[in-house]
Amino acid sequence: MEVILGKLGEAALKGDNRRTFERILAENTRKAVAPFGAFDVHYAQSTFYVKPLAEDCDIDGAYEAVKGVFGFTVVARALGCAKTEEGIGELLRTRIAPLVAHKTFKVESRRSDKSFPLKSPQLSAMAGGILLESAPGAKVDVHQPQVTVFVEVREEYVFIHAGAERGAGGLPVGTGGKAMLLLSGGIDSPVAGYMTAKRGLRLCAVHFFSFPYTGERAKQKVMELAQMLASRCGGMTLCCVPFTRVQEMIRDHCREELFTILMRRFMMQIATRLAYKEHCRALVTGESLGQVASQTIDAIRCTDDATSMPVFRPLIGLDKLEIIERARAFGSLEVSERPYEDCCTVFTPRHPELRPKLEEVRQVQESLPWEELVEEAVQATEFYKF
Ligand code: ATP
Ligand code: MG
């Protein structure tokens, strides 16, 4: 019998919140493995057990899915056997010995069933002895082993695994509340979404598009990115906001140098309205300090002034190359790199203001029917569920 184990990291340390963390993590894990067959997910002593309930379960698929669930620091595939010395011996000889052959290893044992006759050190010694006998070229190294073999005596079975891997880390999605991600089709914002989801936030996303300046394929690309994020944060709603009229109004009535900063303020205002609607309590953007004109300290000051919500910018201190590495690891890079227009690239000023003055920006905005424009955009928003 094979099971998937997921071990808690930080989540295990959260004192009183612990039960909520465990409940949410169990739910997230159930959702993640559901596409791969019928699995039982249960929790005991800082470890989640994902057990297949039928022959046709796709355990490889489920294992990959569990690796992606935020909240697990370590994941492993373990084999279970009857709680007897014979059972343990056979499993070690037939299934674990090939994994430690010609390698250095150590055995760590845990015994949560205290009625089991061997204590942990004895169990480790016994298992080590069996592996030395049955695995050619295997050597014990308790300090820096190539493989650590875990023998865990639990209520019903003994579980043995070797080759545990790092889990996705972070905190279970949903333990930190919900935030609204401003999702463009670029490289940065999907990474920002990934990083905040990893810190336990459920996400909703908002995308601004400027038909006919931006086309159907640009939207399609954002949908794909939304789908990717949704699969990591237990589903997501994408709000697509028609933004053309706002942009045309700014273009026709405002000083060109302020175009970008005004557009960003409108984005924040509309995003804030939608955030309230969707029960989000913060905004998330993919901004990184100094990357472009709208990401200077003064520009950010003007942007933040347009919302009453906290704005999370998880990429603020990262270089573009570091962001690209993360996008590649998450899997979004290839989609983000498809070359379709974003609404930010239409009507870009030749010389954007690097040090916009808040008072001036506010005044210029007041010269527009901005409340009406925001309202109109919110009303025309299309919602998609992923
Ligand atoms: P990205 O790679 O995420 O597009 P960027 O480097 O192109 O970022 P900007 O275009 O200045 O930078 O956008 C900064 C942030 O504003 C983005 O990371 C995103 O959070 C938000 N944003 C930009 N354009 C849009 C859009 N069309 N819809 C929703 N949010 C957007
Ligand atoms: Mg962009």
The number of strands is 15
- CATH topology-level fold name of the largest domain: Rossmann fold
Major β-sheet annotation: 9 strands, mixed
Helix coverage percent of residues?
Answer: 40-55%
* Count of individual domains: 2
- Summed up, the helix count is 13
Relevant CATH superfamily of the largest domain: HUPs
What value does the average pLDDT take? Answer: 94
Termini separation comes to: 34 Å
Structural class call reads alpha/beta
Second-tier CATH architecture of the largest domain: 3-Layer(aba) Sandwich
* Rg (CA only): 26 Å
For this structure, the quaternary state is single chain
The fraction of residues assigned to DSSP E strands is 15-25%
Bound molecules: adenosine-5'-triphosphate, magnesium ion
Short description:
By secondary structure, this protein is of the alpha/beta class. It has helices spanning 18-33, 59-67, 85-100, 120-134, 188-198, 216-232, 244-253, 259-277, 297-304, 320-330, 333-336, 358-366, 370-379, and strands at 2-8, 39-44, 47-52, 72-81, 104-111, 139-140, 147-153, 158-162, 165-166, 178-182, 202-209, 237-242, 283-284, 311-312, 382-385.
List keywords for this structure.
single chain; about 375 residues; alpha/beta; VC0802-like; Rossmann fold; 2 domains; nine-stranded mixed sheet; six-stranded mixed sheet; about 20% strand; elongated; binds adenosine-5'-triphosphate; binds magnesium ion
Explain the overall architecture.
By secondary structure, the chain is an alpha/beta fold. The chain contains 13 helices and 15 strands. Helix 3 (85-100) packs across helix 4 (120-134), helix 8 (259-277) crosses helix 9 and helix 8 crosses helix 13 (370-379). The longest helix is centred in the C-terminal third of the chain and has 19 residues, at 259-277. The structure holds adenosine-5'-triphosphate (ATP) and magnesium ion (MG). Residues 184, 186, 342, 344 line the site of magnesium ion (MG). The site of adenosine-5'-triphosphate has 19 residues, from helix 5 and strand 11.
